[in-house]
Amino acid sequence: SETKKVLTPSNYVAERVLTPENTGSLLRARLEAAALESAKAVNTTPEEKAKLIKKQQDALAEFSLFVETQKILEKSAAKENNHRLDNLVPKNMPTLQIKGGPIRDNAKPVHDSLESFISAFERQLKSHNLPLDNHWERLFWLCLNDNQIPWFRRDLVDKNRTWADACTEIRKEYGNPFHVFLKRHELFAARPKSHESIRLHTECYLLLAQEAGRTNGIDLTFDFVSSLSSNVREKIYPVLARNYGTNWPTDIMEVSQLVISTLGENIDTNHTESNNKRHLSVNEPSPSKTKRKYGNCPVHPKGSHAASECEVLKKQHIHVKENNNNNNNTPAKLCRYCNKVPYQPGHRCQEYFDNETDITGKYKNNNFYTINTINTLQKQSTESLLLPLTLQTNKQVLGILDTGANKSFITPTLLKELEDLDIFLSWN
């Protein structure tokens, strides 16, 4: 007698693991064929009927065993995949350090805002196919230092929070309202730079919106369109009205693509084309190439105008004429002694000689003495000040000498020389 081998999940996997991918379809087709053959067998003997039923039962058992085996394999693969994901740690995890706050790791970048850090954290997890809700708590430890871990344990660890709830708590702890206000004002005043493409302006605008805490919506898309230049807005408003009507779009990228498809990407947003440019008509004759004619202007020898038409010469003639008029109207200078005749070099009037006689007689009885000054402390010092003094004898002389120094003094030798000359000295 032939011994039949009983199929179990273990030996089925061992024998059927290398079957083609369509094994399930083949087993299902075999089961359907056995059931159809058993249903068609009407006028058959009991032995043949029993064989058909046995064949159908074997096909059903084999298909059921295959389905059960597939479930076991899928669970094993899922468990292995989960184990692999649970042990997967991205290398470039960001550090929670925001611009304006403490720098905890100089080797890691400092984020411009809290939203920038959250975006970097999400980017790392999504790039490794790690679901945020399942792995954010395990990997968030790598973004903190010793001073931040107590807050993390107190508010977020083992709370069964989703990533959205965790972001809310992170914003409460590390969000800076003043920074958000500044970014919102910067977003309000954002305008495309000269020769900046629409695509680049869109990226900068979306980054500012993220740092300002703005999300996509009708208000944000309307603000984006309002940030464009006036000539772009005038052309895009009719297109938006024709495509969306009163249902204003809620996605900035959708509006940006519409602007690019309508006006082009590399448009100069600050340039307005003028319609006053004169174009050469087809019927107009082309300008003839004649030899250039030069004028006789001495100031512009390569110019084509005459000297009588030169504006520079006209201004020069007017200036010379004004100077001549001013010179003619200026009276001649008179002698400052007699004040009667115009002064000329060598002029000597009686008043001049009388004035010289008065000056000579005023000082003829005065005796002048010159005393050489003596250096302070008899040394050559940059802090000393040497001043020659002229003194008169038989006369009381009052004078003020301001040297700018805190103190002034004379040596005993100089004092003795002054006393011998019978000169009265007085100082404060």
From TrEMBL:
It comes from the Eukaryota. Residues 269-297 are annotated as: Disordered. This is Uncharacterized protein. The lineage of its organism: Eukaryota, Fungi, Fungi incertae sedis, Mucoromycota, Mucoromycotina.
